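Researcher: Let's walk through a ligand-bound prediction step by step. First, I give you the protein sequence. Second, the SMILES string for flavin-adenine dinucleotide. Third, you return the three-dimensional complex as structure tokens. Ready?
Model: Ready.
Researcher: Here are steps one and two:
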Amino acid sequence: MKNQIIYFQDGSPMEWPYPVKYNQEHEVDTEVLVLGGGISGCWAAIAAARKGAKVALVEKGATIRSGSGGSGVDHWAWALDNPCCKVDPVKFTRARINARGGYGNGITNFINSITGYETLLELEQMGGKIRDTGDEFKGAPFRDEETKLMFAYDYENKTVIRVWGATFKPALFGECKRLGIRVYDRISATSLLTEGGKQGGPVIGATGINTRTGEFMIFKSKATVLCMGIPSRNWIFSSELRGLSSFVPPNKVGNGHAMAWRAGAELTMMERSIPSNFDNPYAYPPYGDGNPYNTWYPCSIVDAEGKEIPWVDAKGNILETPEERCRPSAWQKYFIMVPGHHEGYEEYAMPQLIPDLKERILKGEYKLPLYADLARLPEHERRVIWGMMIGSEAKTKVPILKTYSERGFDPERDLLQSYFMLRGSPMMREPAVPQDRAIFNGGGGLVVDWDLKSTLDGLYAAGEQAFATTGHASAATSGRYAGAKAAEHAMKTRHTPVAPDQLEREKLRVYAPVVKGEGLEWKELNAALCRIMQNFCGDPKSEELLRIGLRALEDIEQNEAEALFADNPHKLVRALDVLDILTCDKIIVHSCMARKASSAFLNFKRVDYPEVDPPPWHKWITLRSHNGSIELRDLPIDFWEPMKDNYQAHKINIA
Ligand SMILES: Cc1cc2nc3c(=O)[nH]c(=O)nc-3n(C[C@H](O)[C@H](O)[C@H](O)COP(=O)(O)OP(=O)(O)OC[C@H]3O[C@@H](n4cnc5c(N)ncnc54)[C@H](O)[C@@H]3O)c2cc1C
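Model: Step three, the predicted complex:
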């Protein structure tokens, strides 16, 4: 095929710079196949290789920096096995899950709690920086002088470790190379191959498309681990306005969820979405405005006249010093970063700014705008926020720390304006427009068991691809565990021949957009899908709205989607992404229809079923695609219990 012309932003033309190889096949044989080279994917590949398996790792971008944690991470939650922590992992994990109304993943959460530090130590061996070796923070209340580990948020219980996470991804990538893992960068996985090409059959490999050449990749495996993260761009999409304010990398669109669905795997919690300021096209780059959350915790906030906004504990007691913000009050247990103060979980809730701040601003007690005042903090707190944390968190090292510093921002002198009472803040306090939603961390995903195996043989899931799994350390620990389990399975499994008709069907599907000379651009389709989701699957929901939404999605699938066209491999992959967004939208709508009750914990409001969290609906609803219909099933909310016994029965020696 003739190379296509592409255009730079200034309009000047250039020929597509890579050879175009549509329909050409490239076959790879492996024992363990890992799809997605982010945090969980790298760990899965490393663990499988250490178990002696032949491993191939497939990544849509460049593994060295790809994924949500590719550019960094500033805190490693949870590492209850670290030598300074005295918290009981079973009680802690249960408390965390209960604080989410039970809608957490007991399996990946427990693996995280109990192997978080062990995993971090492995990372240190690979070259990741996890402790204050240079004694920069000697004497700080968050530092353990013996181990030089530095803790965040809860200085008393030491459950979360501050880390120099910008060093992590290159270290993981280096370890993959050192172990001889074959890394296939710039390949977008498109489908799972199943025995006999049958939906619901054991998984025996996957297909992919080279994002530069369009070549068709066939991976044959004995075990496959899905690590492609959560869906995004389902309600909000703006390629023009968004820039850096998109929270997750925009190439994470739920390809993994869509291909697992097509293969017949079971998913759950897909009805959960949250109003998201994080993805708002007007949002600031994450952590790029002054605020007191996460990376910026426990920064002081002042009003336009320099009056400090008080901090309070969950009972409303005023906390005078920054250090008090980092220790549970005498009546509390430990902090588990409860998202919002759910009644009954105050003993775990982190301090916050006065909850009636908005009302007090409206009454004139505090004057807008507000500012983060780093200068007010003790020196070690200031330096650890503006320096280590901002220098390590995803997407902040260059856009925030470097850029602001080069432009003259001086944390000892300057205030940084806080927009969290105005439109566009990435902070949760600001009410987002209800239809501006996102799946977000800890969202729905594949149903997994104590082997992190999905409901299909040979298929494992880790990180955000496993249901209700959230955070960097959880991705790392679950990836590491799933990789080892996949290797164990691969060792006792034979290769199964791939069904030729399944490959042919997939080729027809993936190359459909390139055989047309013209048609619909992927961006237009993405925007249209978002509009449907905003209108019919926003907040609140009802049977009628959801039905109309589903009809509209099916209509688009049968008509406009057929007109999608791509004139180079990059656009081809973008077009396939949007088709997967459409598939994820349908899964979301079906899930929303299946839950006939409202739920505070799932951010799920049904006007036709207004009762909130009624006991009969306190359960997981799973769904899978089977022979053209949708099959629903219930799982008890705590189906993984007893947590400790199950872990002991299934645990695997990884190192
Ligand atoms: C801005 C930001 C800040 C964060 N800060 C923290 C923090 O401080 N602490 C914390 O615990 N967590 C944090 N998180 C969350 C954490 O980064 C994620 O939970 C974690 O990276 C998830 O790991 P994962 O392996 O599931 O997904 P990722 O690490 O995102 O990896 C998914 C990978 O799959 C690839 N992929 C997608 N589709 C395909 C395909 N079709 N074929 C091949 N490859 C594909 C992607 O390119 C990506 O590399 C943050 C996230 C963001 C976005």
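Researcher: And what stands out?
Model: Residues 537 and 546 are 6 Å apart (CA to CA). The chain is about 30% helix and 15% strand.
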